[in-house]
Every structure is written in structure tokens, then in C-alpha cells.
Amino acid sequence: INMSSSVILRVLAASVRIADKSASLVREIMSSGELGIVDKGGQKNLQTKADTSVEKLIRASLLSLFPKLNVIGEEDEALDATADAKAGFDDDVLNKSSPPEYSKLTEDQIVVWVDPLDGTAEFTEGLLDHVTILIGFAVNGEAIGGVINQPFYNYQAGSQAKLGRTIWGLVGLGAFGWNRSEPPTGRRILITTRSHSNELVNLCLSSMSPTAVERQGGAGNKALRVIEGEADAYVFASPGCKKWDTCAPEAILRAVGGQLTDVHGSKIRYDKDIKFPNTGGVIATYRDHQTIINLVPQKVRDELKS
Ligand SMILES: Nc1ncnc2c1ncn2[C@@H]1O[C@H](COP(=O)(O)O)[C@@H](OP(=O)(O)O)[C@H]1O
Ligand SMILES: [Mg+2]
């Protein structure tokens, strides 16, 4: 390991490898057929053995290398000392040079938001390409870097296709591992929740005169669809998403010039002592963010306070 790399690049390089190991674990649990589904209460709020085992793996691996990081995860599992923490570092990340603004960051300044399995409801239903593993990094309350691993990418592409992929990014450096198809001008495909819809969510969508509305699981998955040009905006007028759902997606969007905010267009904060829910909802775009924000109806603005 190149110890001359900045801390943020080393944390990212480790996280890319940890996310890879996590993806193998998720695929193993899926093929075992024993998902161990637990209902956490509320609307489609599920947990599986994959959520808890992956969170333990990510937590143990990161903290064994960087003990001063602030790691916050969806499942809040106690640290499992038996998790094999040796994942190594990704060379492609280490070979980049850190943007100057982050070169002096220290471990304790970084807050890591972990969603071990985003799109859990869809995972239990076999909609495997909606599932992602999210590791996001925040500094001074802002999402600055992240990893999105899609463990079942290509699962319908035949047995020759390589299963799974990793997208990572850092603001000021860019994001890697994605491919954009430029959408036709004038199109407005909105992408939103599949399993957490309600009247307000639908009111917001219908007020935006969409060309089409797609309903898919996962905040990570939906952000990727926007980045790659399959959808024009991710719109979720609900307080149901949490910081671990949006930190990595927001950082990667920002790294490629996009935005992820609440429905008022205000930045989401990721300080270590912040409340978890994104009470102002979520809107993400690759471009023309303000155009979408301007279409949010007053009733939605009134009901979703930042
Ligand atoms: N009403 C709600 N209650 C609980 N979780 C919600 C929710 N609305 C959204 N979420 C969470 O936000 C993430 C994205 O939601 P969706 O897939 O519906 O777009 C999911 O994360 P997890 O799958 O990691 O739990 C989901 O559980
Ligand atoms: Mg999630």
C-alpha cells in the first residue's frame, strides 16, 4: 500500500475492495436460499441475513484499517470481531491523485454512511438488479465520496457475463465504472420508489408532466439510472429515505456534475450527530436540477420540511 496516498483515497481504495467482498457474501446468501427475512415494522421495512452480515463485514473491515473513522450503518450491528477484515486496497483508486482540498483530511474528520443492502424489499422478491451496497463518505456535513456496488449487475445477461460491478467517485476527481447513454432532449422520465409509495409521492410525480414514471427499488439503483441516462430525475416526496441511502449516491452524482437534494433544492447534511431520516424527501438529477425543483407542488413543499 502506497502510504503517500491521502487518507480519503486509502479509505476509498479499501472500501472498493470491501464492497466487492460484501457483494460475494450477498450472492452466497442469495444462492443459499436462506434469506432470514425479518420485518422491522412500518411500510415494507425488511431486514435479511445479507443486511446484517454485510454491515458487520464492512464495519469490521473499515475499523480494523482506520480505527478513528465514524461509521454509521443502517442495521447498527455490534462489531463482529470474527469478520475477516483483510480486503486490501484497490490499485485503480490508489493510482489517482487526491483533489487538493481533501489531501490533508484525517480519519476522524470522515463520517462513513453504510447501507449494507439497499433495495432489501426487492432483494426478497428477486428483483436483483435493484440491489446495491452503499458506502458513502461525508466531511463537514457534505457527501464527498462513495462506492456503489451492484452485486447482481448482468444477472440476466447469460452465464458468460461478468456478474456485479462497482462505481466509485470523489468530488473534484470524478466517478468511475459507469456508462452514460445521452437521453433525447425533451424527455422527462421520472424514477421513483416501487415499494414505499403514497399519495404525496404520486401527487409530486403527476405534477411534473412526466413522459413516463418508472418504479424501481433502491436509492443507489435509482441514482445510477439517472447517472447513466435511463431516467431524467429520481423523485421521492417522502421522509422515508435515510442518510445511508443517499450519501454514496449524492457524492457520486456530485462527482459527475449532478445533484441530489431534498424537494426544496436544499443540500442534505451528513454530520455524525444528524437525525437519520431525509425529512425533506429526495430529488436527484444529472442536469437541470432547478427545473425539476420548480415543479414540486406547494402541498409537497408544505408537508416535507427540510
Ligand atoms: N416509508 C419507508 N419506510 C422505511 N424505509 C423506507 C421508506 N421509504 C423509503 N425507505 C428506504 O429507502 C430506501 C429506498 O427506498 P425505495 O427502494 O422504496 O426507493 C430503501 O432502503 P433499504 O432497502 O436499504 O431498506 C427503503 O427501505
Ligand atoms: Mg437503503
From TrEMBL:
Highest taxon of the lineage: Eukaryota
GO MF terms, alphabetically ordered: 3'(2'),5'-bisphosphate nucleotidase activity; inositol-1,4-bisphosphate 1-phosphatase activity; metal ion binding
Binding residues for Mg(2+): 74, 115, 117-118, 245
Keyword Hydrolase among record annotations: yes
Biological process according to GO: phosphatidylinositol phosphate biosynthetic process
Enzyme class: hydrolase
Chain ranges passing through the membrane: none
Cofactor(s) in the UniProt record: Mg(2+)
Keywords carried by this UniProt record: Hydrolase, Lithium, Magnesium, Metal-binding
Pfam families per the UniProt record, alphabetical: Inositol_P
Reaction catalysed by this enzyme: adenosine 3',5'-bisphosphate + H2O = AMP + phosphate; adenosine 2',5'-bisphosphate + H2O = AMP + phosphate; 1D-myo-inositol 1,3,4-trisphosphate + H2O = 1D-myo-inositol 3,4-bisphosphate + phosphate; 3'-phosphoadenylyl sulfate + H2O = adenosine 5'-phosphosulfate + phosphate
The UniProt record lists the keyword Ribosomal protein: no
EC number: 3.1.3.57, 3.1.3.7
Entries under InterPro entries matching the protein: CysQ/Inositol_MonoPase, Inositol_monoP_metal-BS, Inositol_monophosphatase-like, Inositol_monophosphatase_CS
Family of the protein in this entry: Belongs to the inositol monophosphatase superfamily.
Protein name (database record): 3'(2'),5'-bisphosphate nucleotidase 1
Protein source organism: Ciona intestinalis
